[in-house]
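pinging the channel bc i need a second pair of eyes. not urgent but kinda urgent?? the chain im working w is below, pasted from the shared doc
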Amino acid sequence: MKIIKNHPKSLDFRSESSNLGTTPRRFHFTERRLKTLRPPRAVKRIYYHDDEVRGLTIAVNRGGSKTFVLYRKVQGRPERIPLGPFPSVSVEEARKRAMRHNSAISSGKNPAAERRAVRDDMSLAELFDTFLTLHAKAKKRTWKDDEAMFRFYLSIWRTRRISEITRLDVIKLHAHIGRVHGKYTANRVIELLRAMFNRAKKDWGWTGDNPAAAIEAFKERPRKRFLKSEELPAFFKALAAELNGTIRDYILLSLLCGVRQKNALEMEWSEIDWKRATWLIPAHKAKADEDINIALTPVVLDILRNRNASSRSPWVFPGRGKTGHLVEPKTAWRRILKRAQITNLRIHDLRRTLGSWQAATGASLPIIGKSLGHESPEATKIYALLDLDPVRESVNRAQQAMLTAGGLAGLLGGVQ
């Protein structure tokens, strides 16, 4: 069962001045009064408090939905316990549920902790919801990938009780996903399932076996694909013909800088030091939770200056979606590859392409590693001794070699 993430700061009693006028945050709940509460515009949700039952609160979301919640401090820790949606749950019923929980709290129990406990009769969907709320969202930047993986590959078991999922079931699922969707995907799905049960055993009271433990993974071959010299002319020509300038520049910068996809998509103007010609990827965006300094070469700086001249967004590659920045342009990428008649190439392979061309132009492994922001602890000891000048020089040599091989001299102006 879902436990709403604690956020006590949002539970103050002040009014939201933007569109709720002088509506008090604490008043006597009635059906009629609650129906008149309007959704907020300036925040995601707003909370109102009943003056009769201690801790009884109603959350009004921006989309208009309203949910009863009991907000109490239990054993010194703020807890929010969902009581049900309004008007499906009446004010009278919400008060009864709140009073039952208050009675349990008075006797030393923690209703929120009891709800978090993983039981034999819990469904896999409930286990995943607990995993997502209490672990993944708090500790993993890639929690949305977990969410998508569960939806695509594990939702077939969403209503099954976790005590009924056997090791044989998992082995069969692993084999099926590997056969239909690929071995890499199959391994990642089983890793997620294993992590869910491990976390349940460690932190949430699950006493059963982990059906995904010790499942033999498919052997994965490291991907070695990169753009070869004979492919570069067609690739650059197809890229120059792309009408969407934001996508075109994003792909070109991904190739010339060799950064991870997510970092390029989330690049902000505030991260660029124009005087030092560097791009600082802050720790909270970096895979290893450490700042990464990317040396920017003249050709990359030209691309960025051209974009900055007409930019009104904090993002280097703005988009129209909720994030405000570009998201992975899968359709455009397929269009560019089709135009270039290139197959089996992923955007992430552009990162490997820069490293390969650096190696081809004589760069050492430490130099290549630092330019690509590798997070290996052993490599980091070496990288710490390097400044960015030799890194920039190496990247610049590799870029010039790629541009020359791609015949970009006459196309560069159009691509930028």
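so The CA atoms of residues 200 and 207 lie 8 Å apart. and Residues 183-203 form the longest helix (21 residues). — does that match what u expected or am i reading it wrong
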